[in-house]
Amino acid sequence: MVRRLKTRWNEFFHAREVPYGMALVRISLPLVLLIGAIPRWWHVRELYSLDGSPSPLWVSYGTTPFLPILAAPVAVALFSVLILSLCAVSVGWMTRLSLIVSCILYAGFGLLDAMGTLTKYTVVATHLMVILSLSECGAVWSVDAWLRRRSQPATQGIIDSPKSSVWTLRLLQLFVGIVYLGAAITKMHTPAYFSGDQLTFWMLGNTNLENRLGETLTLYPWLLAIMAYITIIWEVLFVFLVYSKVWRVPTLVIGLIFHVLTYYTLGLIIFPLMFIATYFAFIEPHEAERMAVWARNALRRVGLTFRRRPSLRVPRSFAPRPAYAAAAWCMMMATGAVIGVEVEHHRDVYHKRGENGPLPLKVMDSQLVHEMLGPAKPIRPKDLYFAFDVGSSNLGGVLSNRRDTFSYGERALIQCSLHPPHPDMWVEVNLHDADDVVLKRVGTIVPREDLRAEFFYDMKEPLLPGEYDFVLKYDGEELTRRRVTLQGQPPELTASR
């Protein structure tokens, strides 16, 4: 038994495979990170240099600075190197060195701008680049591999793709699964997540991008509650099911759908694309080879063909050497840094070298200054409530249907949802008839940790068929009301007929 477990352990971590999966992650991950890095290049002076207003992480925690705030030209030069190194990682040129440089600079700039640059995907991407730098992800589908083939002085036939130990691949796979597991544990300690309230407030905000699908889904809170439970179950089971031959593909497909939906419901871009890129690490070598064959056939169908040149005997004096590649890489980084500094210098964002000197600071509007520095305005009671709905059933503590018509004898469920944070509240839901006469008062205490309150009304005698209003009141003020219609006849009238 022990020998069998040891054998399986060695096969799992130390089997040798062609690193197709890691190569695909290496190609796609930097392209995703460039989506956020390139737009920030235009604002390097403001975000990361002494000329701007950087917000380093250590200021928030009151600790000793462990990175220097850079001068503007230095920050621009290093950020230009970051962009070039990410491009070099994607094409696989000096792969390991490019990954190390990218990882250090990416993490460093994130720490210098904790308010904007440092995000969840920044932290995850840094860990991914560390793992990639330990792997042989540049052994295939890279400039390094092409240079290695060209450096063969007497190559004959086809060179077999190099195999390497899969321990870095397993490390990356386990890292993805552990990130999901940690996210699930965090959600377990957030009651607002299971009720769908957290998702509701996320989807209603356009902090990232406009997300109309998310706004539409907020009309169905019961569906958000179901999605919340499905998500947390999938996150817990991912690291266990992804290694199953039966469940691997369904688990990855669910993850792909989940991350695509985060774009349409939450407006996220880089975070879902980054995790989709990591899914290439779960592709088996034979699947990657089939994908390559399919891609070549697709290119041939559209008229794009690539013919492999016959192998030639290259004199050793003309063969590419690693030193030449390293020198060219360093030259490219230095040239890119100089060009970046020169371009940013001529942009002259602050007009320091203009005819009128630096741009003067604009005087703020006095009314805006008074609002910002004056005492906080009290929160109006109507700003505390979020939704007020009437139905007849709930699912996971959330109203699962909305109704405005009830039959005689049915029970109406009224649910009031509140904005966080809110104080301890006494909330009333009163029943009014068509003439606005109060027929019944029901109230309850809503503690500050709860986001909703429920009320029940039995639609029976002495009520008669007609229209009624449920009125939501707080602190003696009416906030909103919902009109319902009662149909049918009391049993006494029905029996008399």
Describe the structure.
The chain has two domains: 293 residues, no CATH class; 113 residues, Immunoglobulin-like (Sandwich), CATH 2.60.40. It is built from 19 helices and twelve strands. It has a five-stranded mixed beta sheet, with no helix packed on it. Strands 3-7-10 form a three-stranded antiparallel beta sheet, with no helix packed on it. Strands 1-2 form a two-stranded antiparallel ribbon. The radius of gyration is 31 Å and the shape is globular. The N and C termini lie far apart (81 Å).
Write the layout of secondary structure elements.
Blueprint (H helix, E strand, L loop, with lengths): L1 H13 L1 E2 L2 H22 L2 H5 L8 H5 L10 H20 L3 H18 L7 H15 L8 H8 L13 E2 L1 H22 L2 H4 L2 H8 L7 H6 L3 H21 L6 H19 L3 H9 L6 H17 L20 H26 L18 H8 L11 E7 L2 E2 L2 E2 L5 E3 L3 E8 L6 E8 L5 E9 L5 E7 L7 E9 L2 E11 L3 H6 L1
Parallel strand pairs: 6-12
Antiparallel strand pairs: 1-2, 3-7, 4-5, 7-10, 8-9, 8-11, 11-12
Radius of gyration: 31 Å
List the strand order in the largest sheet. 6-12-11-8-9
What summary fits the major beta sheet?
5 strands, mixed
> Oligomeric state of the chains?
single chain
List the uncertain runs.
Answer: 154-158, 310-314
Query: How far from one another are the termini?
Result: 81 Å
Helix content: 40-55%
Category by helix and strand content: alpha+beta
Instruction: Round the mean pLDDT to the nearest integer and report it.
Output: 87
Query: How much β-strand is present in the residues?
Result: 5-15%
**Integer tally of domains:** 2
How many β strands by DSSP? 12
Number of helices: 19
The rough form would be described as: globular
